[in-house]
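Schema walk-through. Below, the input block comes first and the output block second. Nothing else is stored per chain. Lengths vary across the set, and this one has 195 residues.
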Amino acid sequence: MLSKAHENRLIRRAQRGDGAAIEELIREHQGALYGFMVRLSGRPDVAEDMVQEAFVRVIKNIGRFDTRFRFSTWIFTIARRLYVNHMQKHRPASDSEAMEFWASDSDRPDDVMVAAEKRDHLSRILDVAIACLTPLQREIVTLFHHQDWSIEAVSSHLSMPEGTIKSHLHRARKRMHAVINSDEELARKAEEVME
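--- output ---
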């Protein structure tokens, strides 16, 4: 992660047309933005298109960016707006095809296999639960839990009061819990994963 000072230097260089600075900014934010868009859209192909278009717009409008604000918030806002526009034109996908998960700390093949199986189970469970959320709840959950944004940052990003964000998070967690526990197979898999 870039320091704010270094990032601001890169932005100023990019605003002067420095291609290397633009490339470094893109490399720094591409992974997080792609992960956000995959979780938001549930479709890697859509996420890739949105990320690419977002960076095209960033490059085109870098001169208008104000360094008093967080660059990542600006990029995520651009991508989110592109996705909203996309959703208005296309039917949304209901199933998630990809989730990023942590790798096993173990080097033993058996442990790696067990961890991979548990991640697969958890991934399927979470895919079903997240797919049952409203698009707004899905976005809030993704920003807060997967991108590690604060309530304040999510609130600012979505232009909603912090209390509203907390309410949406609470309702989303309850909904996910209900979905997971409503199906015996899902509940059994959730218990296996938690062992």
